[in-house]
Amino acid sequence: LGRGISFHVLLFGQVVLDADLCPATGETDLAPRLYIPPTVDTPWQIMVVRDTCPLPAREKIADQNQLVELQTFLPVEFQEENAFVIHDGTNDEFHFEFSRTDRDWMRAMEADVQAVARQLRRWRRGCEPAWIPHGNAHIVGTCRMDRPGWQGVADTVGRVHGFDNLYLASLGLFPAPVAENPTLTALALAL
Questions:
Q1: Contact 145, 156 (CB under 8 A)
Q2: Is the Cα torsion angle 74, 78, 80, 83 positive or negative in sign?
Q3: Residue 154 — pLDDT band, cuts 50, 70, 90?
């Protein structure tokens, strides 16, 4: 319980679009919500959005239609050493280390994001790609369900082993890392 977790590392950056990709100044533009899905060879997803960029811009851009963010999410491998530890009466702790594979994928993801940005134009000064502090979101697997060859905390319908009528329906049940936002899958598990 609480061991062997996975999560998303997050790489964000904001791009100033080439003028040819934008409507004329003053025209209304629809906010983009584009998605580049993960594949076997690139297990991260890239979202192209116009959202609130958490990075400190050092450059003013008058036409907000010229700005988009690249938000990139990579699931890290499950490792038993990665854990969320709850202490009685003290601060809880989140322990993790990236595996060699995680670091290799992170480097490849950075290169992919740079290639996408070059196609769009350039990075906004101050908003070059940055790993979000603590670099993680969507923690999954804190109480994983069974999978072939491995017994988890719960069976494949979320019933906790050793209890007749205790079921879990949360992100904690995920038996494997996922690249997408896990919210809808967690809802499906609850139904």
A1: yes
A2: positive
A3: very high
CA distances to 47, 98, 107, 173 from 14, rounded to whole Å, are: 11, 25, 18, 34
**133 CB-near residues (< 8 Å, 6+ apart):** none
**Do residues 15 and 94 make contact, with C-beta atoms less than 8 angstroms apart?**
no
The structure's pTM equals: 0.84
Q: Decide the pairing of beta strands 67-75 and 45-49.
A: antiparallel
What is the band of 134 on the pLDDT scale with cuts at 50, 70, 90? Answer: low
At residue 61, the 3 state secondary structure works out as coil
3: confidence class by pLDDT, cuts 50, 70, 90: confident
Q: In this structure, what are the phi and psi dihedrals at residue 33, rounded to the nearest 5 degrees?
A: -140, 75
Tell me if 179 sits within 8 A of 74, measured CB to CB. Answer: yes
Please state, in angstroms and rounded to a whole number, the distance separating the CA atoms of residues 180 and 6: 13
Q: Which residue has the tokens 């494949």?
A: 156
Tokens of 83: 């854990």
pLDDT of residue 135: 55
C-alpha to C-alpha distance for 140 and 182, rounded to whole angstroms:
8
Burial category of 64 from C-beta neighbours within 10 Å (exposed 0-12, middle 13-18, buried 19 and up) = exposed
